[in-house]
Predict the 3D structure of the following.
Amino acid sequence: MKIIHATDYEDMSRKAANLIAAQVTLKPNCVLGLATGSTPIGTYKGLVAKYEAGDLDFSEVSSYNLDEYRGLTGDDPQSYRYFMNDNLFDHVNIDKSRTFVPDGSNMDAEANCAAYDGLVGAAGYPDLQLLGIGNNGHIGFNEPDDHFSCGTHCVDLTESTIEANSRLFDRIEDVPRQAYTMGTQTIMFARQILVLANGEKKAQAVHDMCFGPIAPSCPASILQLHPNVVVIADDEALALCKDKLA
Ligand code: GLP
């Protein structure tokens, strides 16, 4: 794991946008694995700015998102499909028919997840997978468990994730209780993984991801076994790693 220390959120976002831009420049028809949440918003802004400046061309890129709330349609402002359109896809020249997010409106979990795995597999898996990390160490919506997950599946969200994500909803009761998520194994198939983390709430998860035992109680810890992971984290998120990085 390569750990890059960013001073703050803006620095983290700028560094991440630069790495993703390099990927798209080096391989214009690359497959990007994309993430939602507050963490990557600044990175997406940076990518939009590069596109507007004429420095980036998304016309041949395809993308696969990690996860989606089960039961939400893509036009629901709380859905991750809406988030991606709003924060990135609507502002760059990506062909939206090549942007994929698990279909939250399909309540047939088994068929829906198998179809999504088929799509990601047929695309050859992401060249670069962008990840945030949950306060509890989740990646995508792969929550702490007694085993690591494999392919795309339907999960029951933990109370701590529902609580953390409720800040984006009017009421905590409105947060969906389930989600579809790419599995841990699918995430590990990406050729490069870029994890972003900022803020003190992520400090324990970042420590356990990088230096804890590899255990499904911290799903992100499996990334220690991936040969090409870059973590970009700010001061606060690296607070518990200081002695290890010195
Ligand atoms: C969410 C998403 C994750 C995201 C994480 C952190 O629940 N499913 O993909 O990385 O939690 O979110 P945030 O960036 O808002 O802290």
